[in-house]
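Bench notes, afternoon.
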Amino acid sequence: MTYCIATGCSKPKNAATARFCKSCGAKLWVRERYRVLGALGRGGFGATFLARDQSLPGLPPCVIKQLRPTTSDPNLLDMARDLFQREANILGKIGNHPQLPRLLDYFEMSNEFYLVQEYVSGSTLQKEVKRNGPFAEDAVRQFLNEILPVVQFIHNNQIIHRDIKPANLIRREQDQQLVMIDFGAVKDKVNQPKIDASDQTALTAYAIGTPGYAPPEQMAMRPVYASDLYAIGVTCVYLLTGRSPKDLPYDAQTGELRWQDNIVISGQFSQVLTKLLDISVHNRYQMAADVIRDLDMEPYLESLAQSMSFAMAKAPSAAEKNAVELQERVPPSARMAAAIRASKERRTKADPNYKGVERRRSRKPTPVSLQSDYEKGHRDFSNLFLSQLDLRKQVFAGARFAKATLRKTNLLGADLSNTHWSQANLNQATLKNANLAGAYLGCANLENADLRGANLTKANFESANLQGANLCGADLTGASITEAQLAVARTNWSTIQVNGRRSLL
């Protein structure tokens, strides 16, 4: 199907091969390049569409955001153009982060403005909660571990998102990473457009955010970085309760959410949420790094430093090319990491919460402890040493094992669907009859692993080592795997190939 996006078209659906709309006669391919497949969403100020770029090999999918100013006033059109160009500039500046969609194109046609962005295939956190129910505390901590470095990166670029919410956070199907989308409400702290206070039209007021997720200062058109952290706090409450802020009770005198009435969590995490959700911006967290520090997430500092390093990535000046000067420079991410570690070291060892966290980190993983952690909502087992454990028929669907060591581990018949194994060592692991559907195994070591009869549908083996891996009877339908990888692995007539057919030997 080809979809018409002309204003006022009453019957936008057309045949896939059509070039002109049968209803209104408008050209269907946007800019003679993008074939629109359907609408993703609509609002009072525009719409978003799923499309394919017909000019590139493979016809990759993309998202077209159409901005429709509901005015013919030249001054307001100029204002809309400025806002549009500002959003495009911001997206172009931050699009080099792996958890943010890239800007592919932007243009103006007939007083309508268009942004073309990378399409992120996956499920939003809102859909995850509706499908699977509320998250456990450990799962929400993991959410914060994944998203706070992204927020810090955005703020380092002097940008306020202003519309962080579960519907704008997608778990990417390819690698199960969280991706933040919809930057239509962003605000540039440095280059704010100068708008006359009397022009309070839909054009100037459209981007204040989503009620319930936006704090008071943002609804009053005075957002600050801490406004995004408030939205993160409300998102945590939604993940823990499955209820949107409009369905939660609030204090009639202060306007604060009474989220404590619906959640049972640890004292430490309760204190963090309380500070995230403080109505007073002065008492709220000011930086994402402060939240990470108070959650005692030091193991994730490397991820934070990597995210922050994107903001520092720019062409060096002539002076910076001097090797001695480069060595003397200390990036902000390193300073932040050092500060958090120093703060952690100053904590008293008598604190029972502190001791509990240390005990959990230092204990040796066992099949029972791993399954228990998973059932409590813990999903991140990255970097753990799990070699030679007997994990047969255990359930770890959606978990992360990035850089974990599982040499000779028995995962016979285990449910490992939609798991993340980036750079994991699965050398000689037993994965016979395991469910690895949708798993991401980028750069994983599967040398001599037993994958006989495994469900590998839509699994991603990008740059994985499959030397000697046994794929006899495995189902590779829709998997991302190369002929070179298959050539060094063991297959037979019962191996179901990527095209869904068995081998003809």
